[in-house]
Amino acid sequence: MRIGVAKEIKSDEYRVALTPAGALELTRRGHEVIVETGAGIGSAFADSAYERVGARIGSAEDVWNESELLLKVKEPVQSEYARLREGLVLFTYLHIAADEPLTHALADSGVAGVAYETVEADDRRLPLLAPMSEIAGRLAAQAGAYFLEKPLGGRGLLLGGVPGVAPGRVLVIGGGIVGYNAAVIAIGLGANVTILERSIDRMRHLDEILSGRVSLVMSSSLQIAESIRDSDVVIGAVLIPGARAPKLITREMLRDMKEGSVFCDVAIDQGGCAETSRPTTHSEPVYEVEGVTHYCVANMPGAVPITATKALTNATLPYVEAIAEHGLREAVARDPSLARGVNVVDGKITYEAVAEAHNLEYTPLEDVLPLAPV
Ligand SMILES: NC(=O)c1ccc[n+]([C@@H]2O[C@H](COP(=O)([O-])OP(=O)(O)OC[C@H]3O[C@@H](n4cnc5c(N)ncnc54)[C@H](O)[C@@H]3O)[C@@H](O)[C@H]2O)c1
Q1: Concatenated DSSP letters of 311-332
Q2: I need a labelling partner for 330 at 20 to 30 A (CA). Which of 109, 114, 143, 225 fits?
Q3: Contact of 170 with 188, CB cutoff 8 Å
């Protein structure tokens, strides 16, 4: 199959959808890979690194027009809508339930749009979102430690302490992928870590894997209000699938926090879990409310494109290989996880939540791509 890798043109996006290592796996299997000039630069991959593994470097036109399968990181922006066409399989983060113009552009063009974020395993895991949550969680602990420094407006506390001086306290609200990864780094820095969760099963699992290195406490409004008083860093890491983040932290609660403490709201991409949260950017990551530094960057992995690009390729490559090997129709027939990723095909909306969000007709995927038994 002819596989294209487009350069991201959305502002502040430095990731690329395929590493040279990923490109080699594809060229080895006999596929043709075309990478847009400079597509990997933001992630420190030169064009020559792709050429060395047998990929071809081409213009945006070459990549979009010649590919059968096009790999991207972010959804197409408006100037790319005209490039969408029938016969092309587009594999990228789409998030179209929140983007009506793009939904229409995809449907009108006849492209097959497969969204990373809706590829879903039978046990409901989201394998192509998980690596970004891992990165965001780890960054949140680092950001918390950093913004505690006095010259940055923080309390002036070293999170890990030193022998003879107690470490700082980190409170993680939500013990999912973000929360676990935030806790791992905070523990590594030497902090005293508490996770508030509301799923008993998840807490049992965390207890097994973190074996006594964190306090695990049932989450409730009262518990949150009590725990944040003693904390130096609070990390918001909750998710209610398909819904906006619950507002668990009120302005009132923040007033009880210590002056110069830090609140990292990782759940900001779902609206944030505090009343006082609003999205920030990497160029201006923090603001202060009630004496608490708020770090609410909506695209945290964007800060570490080298890591994020590699982690993303690790996760997407098996699906890319399946589509390249079998074609989309057979690949989705073989793998229900991938089938759940198909949002739009032949002008039909095949992902129910997207159709509902925009009041459009929903067509089950089997009606458009008959899932023949393999
Ligand atoms: N800002 C960014 O750059 C960025 C990057 C990746 C993920 N995120 C966001 O981080 C959030 C967490 O993602 P995740 O992958 O860890 O999700 P996840 O589903 O793995 O974990 C969420 C956890 O929150 C728990 N939870 C729900 N309500 C709770 C409550 N009231 N109190 C305590 N715990 C509660 C759930 O039981 C679950 O364990 C999501 O909103 C996600 O979109 C943001």
Answers
A1: HHHHHHHHHHHHHHHHHHHHHH
A2: 109
A3: no
Ligand 1 atom with the shortest distance to the CA of 238: 24
Is 362 a residue whose pLDDT tops 60? yes
Task: Count CB neighbours of 221 within 10 A.
Answer: 11
Contact 139 CB / ligand 1 (< 6 Å): no
Contact call for residues 184 and 138 (beta carbons, < 8 A): yes
User: What are the pLDDT digits (tens) for 252-306?
Assistant: 999 999 999 999 999 998 889 999 999 999 999 999 999 999 999 999 999 999 9
For residue 116, give the nearest of 369, 321, 371, 343 by alpha carbon: 343
- Cβ burial 15-41 (10 Å sphere, 16+ → b, else e): bbbbbbebbbbbbeeebbbbbbeebbe
In this prediction the pTM is: 0.92
- Which residues belong to the active site? 95, 269
Alpha helices, H only, 60-151: 60-66, 100-109, 130-146
**Residue that is written with structure tokens 């890491």 in the block:** 237
Q: Hey, which bits of 208-341 come out as E strands?
A: 215-218, 233-236, 262-265, 286-289, 292-295
Which comes out higher in pLDDT, residue 240 or 129? 129
199 Cβ inside 6 Å of ligand 1: yes
Q: Is the CB of 238 under 6 A from ligand 1?
A: yes
Distance 239 CA to ligand 1 centre (A): 3
- Spatial strand order in the sheet of 215-218: 215-218, 192-197, 169-173, 233-236, 262-265, 292-295, 286-289
